[in-house]
Design brief:
about 170 residues, mainly alpha, three-stranded antiparallel sheet, 4 helices, 3 strands, globular
Length: about 170
């Protein structure tokens, strides 16, 4: 087990703290961008014609509009319950992997931040605010991007030698 000299703390504690701070920062960015989109995007704003635009959208369903046809009195409680279970499970996994390297810690932090951002929307508004539209792709938000990047980091972390925890001497 890796310990900091003379302190009895796990060497990866710094990675956990950095990942947790990154998660809080990502949640703040997600919340701020959704609030700005809600206030400012009355009409779509083209950033790169034919490729990228900002477009306010309310998403009562999940990715790719799955469950959209379900009645809201069934869909919303189901998605809130499933979201709570997913967030609790992810947090439990992250705690169990507290000694993992920085890349894995950042992966967990980003996925959890994205899940919490969308969960907060769903609980507070009854839908998720989406606003980034890339041509030929559904509208998404910063939380969705955090989940995808975080999941990617979790997949590649075991394959990166420098991402593994090291002893601090």
């Amino acid at each position: 087990m890796s310990f900091l000299p003379g302190r009895g703390r796990l060497a990866s504690r710094g990675a956990v703290v950095l990942a947790a701070l990154s998660a809080l920062l990502m949640m703040g960015c997600d919340h701020a961008t959704k609030a700005r989109a809600e206030l400012s995007l009355k009409q779509p704003l083209t950033l790169w014609p034919g490729v990228l635009e900002l477009r306010y959208a309310k998403n009562p369903a999940i990715a790719f509009s799955m469950l959209e046809s379900w009645p809201s009195h069934v869909r919303l409680p189901l998605l809130i319950a499933a979201g709570a279970v997913a967030i609790a499970s992810l947090a439990w996994l992250w705690v169990r992997r507290a000694e993992a390297g920085l890349v894995e810690q950042l992966g967990y932090g980003l996925v959890l931040a994205g899940a919490l951002g969308n969960f907060a929307d769903r609980v507070g508004r009854g839908f998720v605010v989406d606003f980034i539209h890339v041509t030929h792709w559904p509208v998404f938000n910063v939380a969705d991007a955090a989940i995808v990047v975080g999941a990617g980091l979790l997949v590649i972390a075991p394959r990166i030698p420098l991402a593994q925890p090291r002893l601090i001497r």
